[in-house]
Amino acid sequence: MKRLQITLFILGLTALGSQTLRHAYVKWIExxxxxxxxxxxxxxxxxxxxxxxxxxxxxxxxxxxKVKEFERTHPEPEQKEPEYRxxxxxxxxxxxxxxxxxxxxxxxHKEILEVVFFWTAGVVFLLLGLFAVRRNAWLKMGLxxxxxxxxxxxxxPSFRSIGAQPEFERLLTIKLVLSAISLxxxxxxxxRREKASPVSI
Length: 201
Prior knowledge:
mainly alpha; 0% strand; 7 helices
């Protein structure tokens, strides 16, 4: 049991430590601009400047109106063009880009809810293992492992989205804070355990 605890502590420390460091790097150090930014299309620039979902919805409404106006003035040919080819041309291209940005924003918002919920569930499992289970050592260890597994998995790094920067920043901040709290808690838990019964390797 002691060897298992040492192994799991090292694995947990490695996972939480490395991902907390990565979150900090992405939030404060990673370059966010490119020399190519000056060549962005107007719709891409408008998307990157959007600070909330409502602004993206307004952009989509404007782009959709342009598409409808275009379709009124340009009758559909007999041979209908495939949608993926049509979305490569204006005004469909702009509408497709804004739509993608909205979908990315909504996905990041969903991920924020998932992170908070499952991290909290992990903490509950952890507390159950630490304080609720007394007599069964393996059940206790199982709940602690389950708790840290949820915590580590749901605070792991996320992919950056082009059209959802503010929501990605919120997600990144939440993951950074929760990862740091989890790392501190893991170390404190190990120090407490060491004081109670020192482990010799």
